[in-house]
Write a structure and sequence with these properties.
Mean pLDDT: 83
Largest sheet: 6 strands, antiparallel
Strand order of the largest sheet: 1-2-3-4-5-6
Low-confidence stretches: 1-14, 17-26
Distance between the termini: 37 Å
Shape: globular
Order of helices and strands: HHHHHEHHHEHEHEHEE
Helix content: 40-55%
Number of helices: 11
Strand content: 15-25%
């Protein structure tokens, strides 16, 4: 079985090495950030182990090539998760008082480090294996955050997620999820990943464009019951890719004096709320969605 304690210790050791690169390591806030990250990380690993790995056989550590599976939807998930963890890490280090550039780099790296042990867990799973493609996707998510902060000192391109239930999960629930919580993570058919562009911040100062209105580009895929395209075709399924464009609402522009409300709005802003979208897919179809989620 995967030794969860060793993964947690590994994360703490690596993050402590990162903290050692700054003179602010004695700052109490940095210590709080370290302790908080370790606590959240511990809970996340335990939850992931129960949700994803509990029903899988364990084997010796190994790699496997999965770069062409699930129409790249799993790679999008890796990039999205690392993006969000890196963003949280950067904000935490900024709160701790680190100089901006160090906070940007260390926070971004921390997000990447928090995702890396998941590859170790995959490496011990008989159904999966450690994946270099996943590691590259994790690096891309961190790089998207770090580059924006180094360039603009803020996020102007948000990485968002949306999900809608599909019937494909019922066809293979042991892989695509039995319960709704599992299906949000496992059923790639219902997932869409978005890059939401803050138009207001990209225009000259004091422009008249609505601050809350963003333009978004989404990627999704459907028709997948098995991981590989050939297995789906052999079983009679026809997977296809979907490119979507549409409008989005940026809740972070809503001002509030209450810290709880501001935090709630930032949390909800991780997802793309239902909004109109135009779809172009690999089947040659053009679809208009009045509300897409």
């Amino acid at each position: 079985m995967i030794n969860m304690g060793r993964l947690i210790i590994l994360f703490c050791l690596v993050t402590n090495l990162a903290f050692a690169q700054t003179d602010s390591v004695r700052n109490k806030k940095v210590i709080w950030v370290s302790a908080g990250a370790a606590g959240i990380y511990t809970a996340s690993l335990i939850g992931l182990s129960v949700l994803w790995y509990s029903e899988q056989e364990q084997t010796s550590f190994h790699f496997f090539n999965d770069q062409h599976q699930w129409q790249f939807m799993d790679k999008m998930g890796h990039s999205y998760t690392t993006f969000q963890l890196s963003h949280v890490g950067i904000n935490a280090f900024k709160w701790a008082g680190l100089p901006s550039k160090k906070a940007y780099i260390l926070g971004g790296i921390t997000g990447f480090l928090m995702m890396t042990p998941i590859e170790i867990m995959d490496g011990f799973s008989s159904q999966y294996g450690a994946s270099w493609a996943d590691i590259l996707a994790n690096a891309a998510g961190s790089a998207l955050v770090i580059s924006q902060f180094l360039l603009w000192d803020e996020i102007r391109i948000h990485f968002k997620f949306s999900y809608h239930p599909t019937s494909f999960a019922d066809l293979r629930p042991n892989v695509l999820g039995k319960q709704w919580a599992q299906r949000i993570v496992k059923d790639y058919n219902g997932q869409t990943y978005w890059l939401s562009f803050d138009i207001y911040k990209c225009l000259p100062p004091k422009n008249q464009f609505p601050k809350w209105l963003n333009f978004s580009i989404g990627y999704a895929a459907e028709g997948m019951v098995y991981a590989t395209h050939s297995d789906n075709i052999a079983a009679g399924y026809r997977p296809y890719k979907r490119l979507l464009v549409g409008l989005d609402i940026d809740l972070t522009h809503i001002k509030s004096k209450h810290k709880f409300i501001r935090s709630f709005l930032h949390l909800v802003n991780l997802i793309r709320l239902p909004a109109p979208a135009l779809e172009m897919n690999s089947k040659g179809e053009l679809r208009v969605h009045g509300l897409y989620f």
